[in-house]
């Protein structure tokens, strides 16, 4: 029997230490822990797929909480069945002792863990929906306040005004003006139009 751990954070900026500490407390470190930095919307994750290939009948898998496994109600149920029924793997969800497939193999135990799994899977997906809604509302509120998203525009080159005057006086072609400012033709033209509209 081999024992593994699975860790997931939604983005590269998020910290996985809390999950790693929890796995270390049950004796797991190093190469037996599989870590994905990806959304839990589906199970198309490289490390999870690698773990799935490694898991054999009788192996044990630890996860900190059900939402670390995933945040899609249907897919959590499907993966749980795949792991426990088809592959014969035991799963322990550290934050929810009722979700320990090593115990309660009788009908009552299975029934209870199925109910708990369904409730937690629903909560995990619902939370993901709430997060996305809060993000959308936050972005909309920021835009309403005039916050600009994306990279700030590059400042105009020091010679832009002089070149612009020469171009408008027909002393330079558009291509020559763009080259003098070290810009693509379209960018120079766009900047020239914006400059003229605000001047």
CATH class of the largest domain: Alpha Beta
- Percentage of helical residues? 40-55%
Strand content: 5-15%
Q: Which CATH architecture of the largest domain?
A: 3-Layer(aba) Sandwich
Shape: elongated
Which sequence of strands runs across the widest sheet? 2-1-3-4
Question: Could you explain how this protein is built, in words?
Answer:
The structure is a single chain. The chain is of the alpha/beta class and 199 residues long. Helix content is 52%, strand content 10%. The protein has 8 helices and 4 strands. It has helices spanning 17-25, 46-54, 66-69, 73-86, 107-144, 160-168, 174-180, 185-198; strands at 3-9, 33-37, 60-63, 90-93. It has a 4-stranded parallel β-sheet with strand order 2-1-3-4, sandwiched between helices. Helix 7 crosses helix 8 (185-198). The termini are far apart. The mean pLDDT is 83.
